[in-house]
Design brief:
The structure is a single chain. The chain is about 35% helix and about 20% strand. The strands form 2 sheets. A 3-stranded antiparallel sheet has the order 1-2-3. The mean pLDDT is about 85.
Length: about 140
Amino acid sequence: MPRKKEIIAQVKLLIPSGKANPAPPVGPALGPHGINIMEFCKQFNAQTKNMADTLFPVVLNVYNDRSFTFALKTPPASELIKKALGIVKGSSVPNKDKVGVLTNAQIEEIAKTKLPDLNTDSIESAINIITGTAKSMGVET
């Protein structure tokens, strides 16, 4: 009877789409677990090559036979907000300096994108979460 694969480690990374390589942060995070770093990079890059410069959170499960599986999460809300506004970064003083204005339609679109990874099933709650993130970045809603 074959033995069941057992998860020995779970690694979380934040990698730009299509740009995984053995250099930091990928190599040093995966190396100690003995998995094939180049194989992970090839699989990740193949899945994200059409996603245009977006950061992706990745949850990688490492098994006792040194195989692995990984799941892509939705990009961070702050990345989606920056992309929607076309800005490089949020405000360093969000309560004074504003960097842009998000429309209700943009907020709803970002909330729908993030909904699978948020701890809510309600679109209204997701909109509130995205609005809070935007305000903390100095974005008016």
